[in-house]
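User: For a teaching handout, I'd like to show students what a predicted protein-ligand complex looks like in token form. I'll give you the sequence and the SMILES for zinc ion. Please answer with just the structure.
Assistant: Understood, here is the input followed by the structure.
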Amino acid sequence: MGSPLSPALLAIAASALAMTAIVGVRYLITSGLFALVTHRVRPGLYAGMNRQIRAEIGWSLLSAAIYGLPSGIVAWGWQAHGWTRIYTQASAHPLWWMPLSVILFLFAHDTWFYWTHRWMHRPRVFRIAHAVHHASRPPTAWAAMSFHPLEALTGAVVVPALVFLIPIHAAMLGLVLTIMTVMGITNHMGWEIFPRALVHSRLGHWLITASHHHRHHEQYRCNYGLYFRFWDHLCGTDRGVSAP
Ligand SMILES: [Zn+2]
Ligand SMILES: [Zn+2]
């Protein structure tokens, strides 16, 4: 019955649902794991925060559905029509392209995040789209995807757009998504998981970990970056690290 579009629409809907489930389950497992580690390493850190954590989980699962839609559409197009520049044969590009493609993805995502994040700190936009994320005071391991749907949408389009622009091996895309997931959680966990020697090193001067993002949640108008401190340093918005 119906138009010839129906089977394709059904396939797209199935793909979006599958992606939503993958993102949602991935969130529950990884955030749950880091919450468990937190319980062991910093017992009592999340004491009395059950209400906030429930809200963080609710917003994050809603975000999973918003992430699932564009990624589901693109995953369907990749399988059904060969969309995107994702490749699976390692020999399709020089080997050195693999690490470089990962860095390019992270830097592009970081750039997009920095500028949309700064925009979301304009008072009007903040109240509508970003206050939800800052309701986590201090954030917990469950806050990684705790975004208002509008903010979730700005994040959800990044990787699905980049796979059309930058060639990337499927395994490297998996690595990008893993870094995205782990850093999203550890940056909000409320304590620093990386060694002090790294955080306070020359390399640490350019990398974002919990010590850096925690200060953003404390002071709001600084430390806007996602992975790297490049834009924060360049634009004078870097206020160093705190000691969560
Ligand atoms: Zn945050
Ligand atoms: Zn913010």
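For the handout, you might add this sentence: Residues 117, 121, 130, 134, 216 surround zinc ion (ligand 2) (CB under 6 Å).
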